[in-house]
């Protein structure tokens, strides 16, 4: 399986024409200029019941969104806000919208293309999601109590955008986007959130890894960049005052993370004894915080190809989860030094640690990782959106 196309499949899973119509995009193409099939919409009915969440949020702390009137031009600068929460895929966007902007559809968020054609397009390869969407991001302002928040969905992606500049080097436009967001919004805290592959065997589907550290693990198009193996951290105390409230919110949707009954693909395979199907595993998502539930500053791992934790690749020795982008935020904030906001990674386990004994040719391991994402990516992202809410609601810095 082509891991770049698998990553694109995950990013676009659930994409609709309405998502693209926020901007007038190019024809979807792959890196060689051929047609790229658009991902099929996600499973029907995957939407959080707002009444469930609304009844559980503490009084005065339910997110209250408001679109800007009159609507800003897509080329306008982003509005100021105390907090930025940015996510990456369609499923993650839907979850963030359901938690942070109830009543405002993701397709009604404001499109954002400031400097897109002049500054970014030359750095974005043909077929990248941003080329199809013809924008950098979309956003919607919301409030949590007296705190202003900008909820965002990026169209830029570390492993989808890069234009080759040498052997193992490429452009990284998502880093420019982070710089632009920080310059315009001037947030106190910026959170990158969404799905990740679990690295720890005991992390449940839907668990949320909260870490103040990120590390590049580049072995493909960025393998020879100076940052290819660099780690970054942001040393501040993560507010936990609303974590108990978050537990209640997480429990409201725990049943959605029950895995199906499982058995061999044909009855020619035999389980021990008379049992032919194993009962589905029930998951109970919780928040895992660096320095409390795993090692302090244990980083999220940012790869430049679709990678996931397995029982044999020992990624848990290196990081608390694996995804494709967060270390770029750490790098930008490190460059900004004293002018940088606090930053944080809040990632949910959309696929558990995969059985490393399964074959990789054909790539059955990747098949299962993608299957878990497509079935549970939305509901696990509800978990990380709730964790983001708890961190912002409890922050007094």
Would you kindly provide a written description of the structure presented here, covering whatever features stand out?
The protein is of the alpha/beta class and 397 residues long. Helices cover 27% and strands 18% of the residues. The chain has helices at 3-12, 17-20, 50-56, 90-100, 116-120, 129-133, 158-161, 173-185, 243-251, 326-336, 364-393, and strands at 64-65, 83-87, 110-112, 137-144, 147-154, 164-166, 169-170, 189-198, 208-211, 213-217, 231-233, 287-289, 300-303, 321-323, 342-351. The strands form two sheets. Strands 1, 2, 3, 4, 5, 8, 9, 10, 11, 12, 13, 14 and 15 form a 13-stranded mixed β-sheet that branches. A two-stranded antiparallel ribbon has the order 6-7. A hairpin with a 2-residue loop joins strand 6 (164-166) and strand 7 (169-170). The longest helix is centred in the last third of the chain and has 30 residues, at 364-393. It is globular, with a radius of gyration of 20 Å. It starts with a helix and ends with a helix. Residues 23-49 have low confidence and may be disordered.
Average pLDDT, rounded to a whole number, is 90
Helix content: 25-40%
Instruction: Return residue spans where pLDDT drops below 50 for at least 5 consecutive residues.
Output: 23-49
SSE-based structural type = alpha/beta
How many strands, which pairing sense, and closed or not: the largest β-sheet? 13 strands, mixed
Write down how many β-strands occur, each being a DSSP E stretch of 2 or more residues: 15
Question: Could you say which overall geometry the principal axes of the C-alpha atoms support?
Answer: globular
| Ends distance | 46 Å
Beta-strand proportion: 15-25%
Count helical runs.
Answer: 11
Order of helices and strands: HHHEEHEHHEEHEEHEEEEHEEEHEH
Q: Cα-atom Rg, whole angstroms?
A: 20 Å
């Amino acid at each position: 399986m082509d891991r770049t196309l698998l990553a694109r499949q995950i990013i676009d899973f659930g994409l609709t024409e309405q998502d693209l119509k926020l901007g007038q995009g190019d024809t979807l193409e792959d890196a060689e200029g051929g047609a790229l099939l658009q991902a099929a919409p996600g499973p029907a009915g995957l939407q959080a019941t707002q009444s469930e969440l609304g009844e559980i949020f503490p009084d005065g702390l339910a997110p209250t969104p408001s679109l800007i009137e009159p609507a800003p031009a897509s080329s306008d600068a982003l509005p100021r806000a105390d907090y930025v929460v940015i996510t990456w895929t369609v499923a993650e966007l839907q979850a963030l919208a359901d938690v942070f902007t109830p009543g405002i559809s993701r397709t009604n968020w404001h499109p954002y293309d400031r400097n897109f054609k002049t500054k970014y397009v030359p750095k974005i390869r043909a077929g990248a999601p941003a080329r199809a969407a013809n924008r950098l991001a979309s956003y919607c302002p919301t409030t949590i109590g007296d705190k202003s928040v900008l909820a965002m969905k990026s169209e830029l992606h570390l492993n989808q955008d890069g234009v080759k500049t040498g052997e193992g080097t490429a452009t990284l436009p998502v880093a420019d986007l982070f710089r632009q967001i920080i310059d315009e919004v001037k947030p106190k805290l910026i959170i990158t959130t969404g799905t990740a592959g679990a690295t720890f065997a005991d992390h449940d589907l839907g668990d949320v890894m909260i870490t103040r550290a990120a590390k590049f693990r580049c072995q493909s198009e960025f393998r020879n960049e100076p940052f290819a193996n660099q780690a970054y951290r942001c040393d501040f105390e993560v507010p936990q005052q609303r974590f108990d409230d978050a537990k209640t919110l997480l429990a409201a949707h725990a049943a959605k993370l029950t895995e199906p009954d499982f058995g061999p693909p044909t009855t020619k395979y035999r389980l021990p004894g008379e049992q032919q199907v194993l009962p589905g595993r029930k998951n109970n998502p919780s928040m895992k915080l660096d320095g409390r539930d795993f090692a302090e500053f244990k980083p999220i791992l940012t790869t430049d190809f679709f990678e996931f934790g397995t029982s044999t690749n020992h990624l848990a020795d290196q990081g608390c989860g694996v995804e494709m982008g967060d270390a770029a935020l750490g790098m930008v904030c490190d460059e900004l030094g004293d002018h940088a906001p606090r930053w944080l990674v809040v990632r949910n386990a959309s696929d558990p640690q995969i059985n490393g004994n399964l074959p990789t040719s054909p790539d059955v391991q990747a098949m299962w990782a993608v299957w878990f994402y497509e079935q549970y990516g939305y509901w696990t992202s509800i978990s990380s959106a709730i964790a983001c809410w708890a961190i912002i609601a409890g922050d007094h810095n």
